[in-house]
Amino acid sequence: MKRILCITLFAILNWQNTYSQTFTDSIFRCDIIEQDSTCVTISLNDKLDREQKKNLRVLTIPSIIHHNDNVFKVEALSEYGFSGNCDIHEIIIEEGVKTISKGCFSNNLSLEKITIPSSTHTIEEGILSNCNQLTSIIVDGNNQYYDSRDNCNAIIESASNKIVSGCNNTIIPSSLQSIGKRAFSSCFHIKSVNLPEGLLTIECESFLNCINLQEIVIPESCVRIDGDSFKGCQSLEAVSIPQNVSVIDYNPFTNSPKLQKITVDGRNKCFDSREGCNAIIRSNIHQLVAGCQATVIPDDVTQIEMFAFAGTPFLSEVHIGKNIQKIDNGAFANVLCIKKIIVSEENKQYDSRDQSNCIIETKSNRIICGGLGFKIPQTATSIANYAFFGSILPECFYLPDNIEKIGYFAFAYSLNMKKLIIPSSVSYIGTQAFKGCHELQSVEIDSNNISIGAACFEGCTNLSGIYMKEGIKTLPEFLFSGCSSLKHFYFPASVDYIMHNTFEGCPCKSK
Q1: pLDDT confidence of 85, banded at 50, 70, 90?
Q2: Which of 130, 302, 388, 471 could disulfide-pair with 286, CB 3.0 to 4.6 Å?
């Protein structure tokens, strides 16, 4: 028996702590701090209308709030509390504010100038990320914890000499030792960066989505480059790793599609780019850490690390040699156009059986990744995490009935697929397995004994039709979150538990 689910969304406000109180004052939302009831953490009032926001061209954040004959000190600015406003051009923070929390001013697309007072002693990561028009950052000269030395247009943590936040006009001082997480995130106007000698560390996502960054000079002094530090640098064509870099935790250059030349200084004792392979290889274990569209995997490589080729859309051929013993999940995630996958017949760990154009782990029969026009062999039993992330799928995609498990993000953000049929053989679908498949319109799940991970179809904006076989009992959280075309959902009578946010953002109305 089929029923039509009526979805009603409830906003439940539940303060478990009796000391916590919230009030609004003008344009601000204020949260009283438990440890000191005379202090508040503030954010922008999310109930402001469009006209009120237009008047916030210059936003002054006060250090004192008057409310109901009480005076409250503004101790901190909330996480993402002033994020995503397109009208603010300048922010002035009054003297007295001590803490600026994570992502506080992120995604303010019109922000040009910000002033930090001397009282601020804590600034968390990414407070100005994706503020792509920002050109002026000033820290009060009397601040003991942070500075903008030499009129550098950046926030620098004084004790560690680390840039916490920069902008398009930042002039990196010679005294700098570290680039902080998301410090230059989405600085669209940066075309080249010459990092000073003395720099030691480039942290995760430091230059995230700097889409016009064409050239980066990493100094000899650098010893650590974190993963994703240059993720999404779509104009970056070449990079050179100097001799003293001893730590690269995973690929720093994911989703950099134009990258075609990678070299490692021959004096480096930890990494190399042997035989001019255009890759970074961890020397002692022969592990390929980062590749690009021009990479030729050397014969003596034994491992390919997670995300090593992620976001390399023009990698036309992949040759897996006989010595490769381990390929991490996601090594080829979001590689759009692999025309040909060749696995050596001498390789004992992997194969590409039945002209499948896939890499298959031989012992487990698990598909690691697939190229254009892939065919899932009848002997394969599972799909690895990220295996077809961002791949081009058939318009009507029938998974064969020999597949039992689908890993997390296995088909996320894949293209072209409009109809998906999951056979009765599948007993497990991982978290976010089909997330962001925007062209997907209908799903048929024929298994009656299946575990479905959270957010499995999150953000499938064209998904309008779903069929589930009798026997499914639980619909997990965020399963269809953001499926904005899902107006009606037919579900089996066996369903006895639905998380309150399973259909968050869906327009389901009728019963």
Answers
A1: confident
A2: 302
For residue 121 the two structure tokens come to 């002693």
In angstroms, the Cα distances linking 179 to 102, 148, 172, 326 are 16, 14, 10, 32
Q: How high is the pLDDT of residue 324?
A: 97
Q: In what order do the strands lie in the sheet with 350-351?
A: 350-351, 358-361, 366-370, 382-383, 405-406, 428-429, 451-452
The C-alpha angle 286, 258, 132, rounded to 5 degrees, equals 115
Q: Are 434 and 411 in contact (CB under 8 A)?
A: yes
CA 354 – CA 370 distance, rounded (Å):
13
Distance CA 220, CA 47 (A): 51
Q: Residues for the chain: how many in total?
A: 511
Identify the three-state secondary structure at position 445.
strand
Distance between CA atoms of residues 327 and 325, nearest Å:
7
DSSP code of residue 51: H
Predicted model pTM: 0.87
Task: Give me the residue label for tokens 């064209």.
Answer: 462
Phi–psi pair at 476, nearest 5 degrees: -75, 175
Q: Which range, 55-69, 76-90, 294-308, 468-482, is most confident? A: 294-308
- Span 401-414, average pLDDT: 96
The whole-angstrom separation of Cα 363 and Cα 154 is 53
- Distance, in Å, from the CA atom of 333 to the CA atom of 370, rounded to the nearest integer, reads 10
CA trace torsion 342, 346, 351, 353 (10° rounding): 80
